[in-house]
Structures are given as structure tokens and as C-alpha cells.
User: Fold DUF2897 family protein from Neiella marina.
Amino acid sequence: MGTELSGWSIAVIILLVLGVIVSNLMVLKYSAKMKWPKREDLVDPMARAKYNSEKDD
Assistant:
């Protein structure tokens, strides 16, 4: 008495997996465009202020 999945269940599982993969790729593409601050910029107060003013623009 094994548990069998119907065709609809398999289709829903496949769609969920594809949705997760596509959304992760979209987040990766979006984050690749972001400008990340350098470590020394975060330590130096003047550089931090400059970074924050550029980020607000």
C-alpha cells in the first residue's frame, strides 16, 4: 500500500520547484546590480557619509 501521487500533485510540485529556482535567479540578478560598500568605507565616517548620500540619490 504505497502512497501514489496523482498527476496534479506532481505538476504542482514541479511548478513550486521551478518557481523557487526562477525567483532565486531573479534575486541573484537584482543583487548583482547593487553597489556594495567597501569595508574601509564603512569604518571611515566621512566615507560612510558619502556612501549614504550617494545611496539616497
Observations:
- The chain has one domain: 7-56.
- The chain has a mean pLDDT of 82.
